Amino acid sequence: MSEKIGVIGGGQMGSQIASLAAMAGYETHVYDENTENLTSKLKFAEDNLENLISKNIYKEEHLLKFKNNLKISTSVDEVAMGKTFIIEAVVERLEVKLDIFTKLSEITDSNVVLATNSSFIPASELAKECKYPERFINMHFFYPPLRMDLVEISYPTSTDEDVLYRTQEVGKSMGRSVVTLKKETPGFIVNRMLAALIDEAYELYDEGIADFEDIDLAIKKGLNHPLGPFELSDYSGLDIHYYAKLKIYNETKKPEDYPKKFIEDKVNEGDLGVKTGKGFYEYKKD
């Protein structure tokens, strides 16, 4: 079927997920409560796309589809109206996502796919308080979606087989490589592997073994990683790591699972990484 796509959340991730959908030829609407920020992020995506066209990564037709197919909505109700496939890409906080999906489950038909971009909050947890849980699924993109060629899909046993198929097809039509997990697990494949590296890097820093810059340098030079763990944290968003760790702590109540104080301090101060202009490092804001 020809999907009509809605994206909720127009930050760094949502704006580019919506861009990919439009570029794939889907009629796409995107909503964020901060319209000014959404407009800025879409302009950044367009500039980025033009740069990638100049490098022969995309074609002019992708830019044309981006401009013709992508529209801004002014409310959740509007972005959901007439859609067959909705992707949520808001902050990694369970209560925020639950509010959105509870509403979406009330205002959309039972055959509308409800996908979350989260890789730490499983679809089963979002679906249990909502109508028609068989349409919930995780569809996890990587930052920046315009450049990163991967989508991880995870789904609970209650998810309908057709919902899985449709999600895989949307990912492929966006030009992404699609990996489908056989069962739910926090972090999926990539972030579960990275979490171990980042946790150890944070422990080294917390113990005063080395400065974060030197830890990043050691990992890049010694393991040939393109980014060090602290740089990667900045690009992913320090709030993503913080709330993921907090969720684990709230389930286990183990002190070692609580987020590091230096991360908690940065989140409380609003220094979330690239998207705010400052995290471990400082960045020029868009």
Tally of strands: 8
- Name the CATH superfamily assignment of the largest domain: NAD(P)-binding Rossmann-like Domain
Overall morphology: globular
Portion of residues in beta strands equals 5-15%
**CATH architecture field of the largest domain:** 3-Layer(aba) Sandwich
Number of helices: 12
Structural class assignment: alpha/beta
- Any idea how many domains? 2
Element pattern in H and E: EHEHHEHEHEHEEHEHHHHH
Q: Biggest sheet: strands, sense, closure? A: 8 strands, mixed
Note the topology.
Layout: E1 4-8, H1 12-23, E2 27-31, H2 35-54, H3 60-69, E3 70-72, H4 76-80, E4 85-88, H5 94-107, E5 113-116, H6 123-127, E6 136-141, E7 151-154, H7 161-173, E8 178-180, H8 190-206, H9 212-222, H10 229-236, H11 238-252, H12 261-269
Parallel strand pairs: 1-2, 1-4, 2-3, 4-5, 5-6, 7-8
Antiparallel strand pairs: 6-7
What's a concise summary of this model?
The protein is of the alpha/beta class and 286 residues long. Helix content is 49%, strand content 12%.
Brief descriptors of the model:
286 residues; alpha/beta; Rossmann fold; N-(1-d-carboxylethyl)-l-norvaline Dehydrogenase, domain 2; eight-stranded mixed sheet; 8 strands
Your description of this structure?
This protein has 286 residues and is an alpha/beta fold. The chain folds into two domains: 177 residues, Rossmann fold; 86 residues, N-(1-d-carboxylethyl)-l-norvaline Dehydrogenase, domain 2 (Orthogonal Bundle). It contains twelve helices and eight strands. The chain has an eight-stranded mixed beta sheet, sandwiched between helices. It is globular and about 55 Å long. The model has no long low-confidence stretch (mean pLDDT 95).
